[in-house]
Amino acid sequence: MTTQVPVRSSARPASAGRRAWTPHVGTIPALLLVLPLALVALLFIVYPLVRLTLDAFTQGDGGLSNFAAVFQSRAILNSLLNTIGMSLVVTALCLVLGGSLAWAVARASRPAVKALLWTSILVPFWMGVVVKSYAWAVIFANNGILNSTLQNLGLTGEPLSLLYTRFAVIVGMTYTMLPYAVLAMYPTMSGFNAELLNSARIMGSSRTGAMVKVWLPLVRPGIIAAGAIVFAISIGFYITPVLLGGAQTPFMATIIGDDIFAFFNYPRAAASSVLLLTFALVVLGTAMRFVGAKALKGGLRA
Amino acid sequence: MTIRSRSRATTLLAGSAAAAFVLAGCGGGGSAADDTVSLTIASWGDPFTSATRTHLAEPFMEETGYEVQIVDAPGRYIASLESQNQANNVEWDLLDSTSAPDAYIGYERGLLAAMPEDVQSRLLETLPEDAVTDFGITWSILGYITACVEEAVETCPANTSELFDVQGFPGSRTSISTSPMVNLSLAEVAAGVPVEELSTHEIDLDRAFATLEEFQDASGAWWSSGDQNMQVFENGEAQMGISYSGRAYTVAENGTPMSISWEDGLYNPGFWNVVEGSEHTAEAWEFIEWIATHPENAAAWGVELGYSVPMEEAFDYIDEETASQLADYPENREQLGDMNFEWYVENYEEVNTRWQEFLRG
After folding, report:
1. Chain A, window 206-235: residues with a beta carbon less than 8 angstroms from a chain B beta carbon
2. Under CATH, to which class is A75-301 assigned?
3. Looking at the domain that runs over B3-140+269-330, which CATH code has it been given?
4. ipTM of this predicted complex?
5. Single pTM value for the model
6. Cα distance from A172 to chain B (closest Cα, Å)?
């Protein structure tokens, strides 16, 4: 952080009797400043996660038995595949749609257009996930807006089954995750110098060639960061799959909830949670290796 | 919370009237002295919590001088009690309307207190025999009944067997996804087990799941909460199915004409329980005896939420139309079967595993 701040003020000689303002903070004050957050993180994030992991290996019959129980359950494996597969689809959709949106915002020259685009991205971001999911449930219902419109237009006789399907879950999740993707990709998109595309064209590149060979490598860190964030958050979804997917397209979080609240099988729930957590960490770790932690942090900060 | 510690806390937060108000609210309103008994009830959140507070807890407080607090823990009783036990810090004294499977499992796991014999014999003076169990009294009772959207199909099924006859009565089905016992018991009824025998019948899992597979193929959606129960009918996701009795009548009141049949349905009691390890067990049982002997309060509670309560005298305070929609209304009660929860507790793991595989696999 500190190295990025221009040191203009400290470069100027300090006048007598007044200490020049310096952006550098000593080690001890810095540690003191971080301490409250570190304590909270230790108590409410690190401790529960360590405890959860220990529980997964020690509760019930202990050892790997809880993990064995997870892998022996067809229902859990099915929902694990469901979770990963649908999260991948959501990630891909968010990258394509979010990338286009981020690019459009970055290139928009009229302030009014820019403001409108930002509003349309951020308003859904600020809505609660339950509200968003119910809105889609109303739209997708058998006698909902979409079906009645299609029927009135004569495009379909019988109402289409949309609600409580994978399709509904993917739409609802993509809608929820889109702002994250845009915010993660926006910094690299807006930092991209559009003149480079012109230069590439002048040097004889085709339109597509310029995009693939010049634009893509430069915005790649943003895309990977966005993909990693969207995927890692997606695999933990709970409410949207419950409200839009119904009982037959469960996510891992639903199954973990079953184990805790309906079947009181806490050890197996702990094992499933650790598996899901490991999966998210592997994805984030791989992404970090690809683009370097800096770009990912930039994405997360946005 | 004592008066002393409260006033100190108020001083610390001097100037912040709102904070002081909240702190005062913690004590439950009345002035709290050191020797005041304070009971904590776990409930389901509104509208449950307010109905319990208005019709049961507040009049009880006035009569006894005890304090009663209500905390919201919808659907989390057993999981929370397990973790409270693990932390050696049992915070609750009473459970409001525990679902039957949770109550039986909770008692089996030692999380719920056994009813003392003297309490049991006194309760039997005001309650019917089947309302008093080893671990509590039945409460917030409803029926699982056959409901059908009249305009959606040619013929609505008139009982459980017809509902499970997917060829004879075509149409998309729905049922509750969170209760294997309800679905398995009704599947057995469809296979020919008389409802009167259900309470002692050992479910043939292979046969019941085979019946449910057929039902599943015709399924439009499963519901997991009362809201969703109504939604699947109102939105047209399902044309017929198993419904909570109260919710089915609400759908009809909201303007979707419903055919509602109690024939061969299930009687589904909830329970008032005392928590094992509570510091005020005696007072908690006193509360349960209090509600068992106050049918007027019980009736008001039940009418507000659309649930039935076990005492016959309660019906003296309920109008005929509302009463006829409740599970304990004699004409309805005699058509309903009881689930064999003793069997469920013994076969709990197998039933749940197979149910999860069936539904989610």
Report:
1. none
2. mainly alpha
3. 3.40.190.10
4. 0.74
5. 0.82
6. 18
